Amino acid sequence: MMDRNAAVRLAGLTVAAGLIAGCAIEQTEVEPVGAIRVTAMDTTQGFALEQAQVLVNSVPRSQTVPAVLGELPPGEVTVTLRPGQGYPPATRVVTVDPPETTQVHFLYARPDNSQANNASVKVVSNLPDATVIIDEQLQSERPPDEYSLLPPGDYTLSLHKPGHRTLPPALRSESLEAGEFYTFQFELEQGTVSTEVGSLFPDFTLPDDWGGEHSLGQFRGRIVLLTFWFYDCQPCRDEFPSIEQVFQERAGDGFRVLGVNVGWYQDDQEDFEAIREQLGLTFPLLFNTNGPEWTRFDLGIEQAPANFIVGPTGEIHFRRGQISYELLNEMIDDVLGG
User: Fold this and answer.
1) Do residues 174 and 248 both lie within one domain?
2) Is there a cis peptide before residue 99, judged by omega within 30 degrees of 0?
3) 161 and 130 in contact (C-beta within 8 Å)?
4) Beta carbons of 155 and 174 less than 8 angstroms apart
5) 46: DSSP letter
6) Residue 17 lies in a domain
7) 248 located within any domain
């Protein structure tokens, strides 16, 4: 594999040769992009809210508040904040105006924990020791024997237990109203854990380049692309823009992406930031803190890119090498149609 310095020198020589030969280098006009800065505060108690999930045009962003979210085209965008901690979801429509950074500030009052002003929610399952997922966040408590309170608003719920598939419907979407009672029933079934099609992909929790962490289990009920990559992998770079485009276009269909570094070449924070900036990536990029043996031996990945489509039940539908925009859409359509 060519090292980066050699690649840079070679690129420079290629450009120089083109100039010597009298070839004109075409200048392409780059569309300006803007950014928004998202913050939130509890005005009653006077402190900033942190670690809240942010969605832009229904697409989840890797960063949690406070955060500056870039790579946004000019015009109106819809920003949704899901703070949890007893605070309801909230949405703002703001205008992105490059090169300015648009400020988006969410204000909350102290959470009201009364039953009259909250929805009462119970999640039940046929098996014990499963974890409730609300808006793609694993909850610390197990399925409760009694009702829990959630502020009014739109939510998604699912249930996850390692080594088990969540039978359809694996995801419930509900608009919760204050003073109402809701019960959600999920069925779990034990399955085989491996990286073969038809099996359950092994669970993992890994840190991202924004200081957070992501678990595969938190996306139960969604269609997830697991794409394994490394910095100097040219086929990975070739497919990343297509993956990003599909992520932006099909987040509303429940499509999510986790870009997992294989961990073979000691790619660091600088490499993550560079590839994100160079290719305009907004989906999570995860460090392999489990070590190179995890990808090579536990997962059986011997080359990159390696791509897996995991369906809503947790089962693997497709395992592929390099993918294209068309192929990725076809695989998503297949899962949705199944």
Assistant:
1) no
2) yes
3) yes
4) yes
5) T
6) no
7) yes
**Residue in 156, 199, 198, 203 with CA at minimum distance from that of residue 176:** 156
CATH number of 280's domain: 3.40.30.10
* pLDDT tens per residue, range 220-275: 999 999 999 999 999 999 999 999 999 999 998 999 999 999 999 999 999 999 99
Residues 303 and 256 in one domain: yes
Residues composing the chain: 338
Q: What six digits make up the tokens of 58?
A: 């229904």
Backbone angles phi, psi at 127, to 5 degrees: -130, 150
Integer Cα distance of 190 and 159 in angstroms: 13
DSSP H/E element including 247 = helix 234-250
Phi/psi for 7 (5° steps) reads -65, -40
Token duo for residue 279: 């290719």
Q: What is the pLDDT of residues 294-334, one digit of tens each?
A: 999 999 999 999 999 999 999 999 999 999 999 999 999 99
Cα torsion angle, 135, 284, 64, 333, sign? negative
215 and 138 together in one domain: no
Q: What is the pLDDT of residue 111?
A: 83
pTM, to two decimals: 0.85
149-194 pLDDT, tens digit per residue, is 999 999 999 999 999 999 999 999 999 999 999 999 999 999 999 9
Residues 104 and 121 both lie in one domain: no
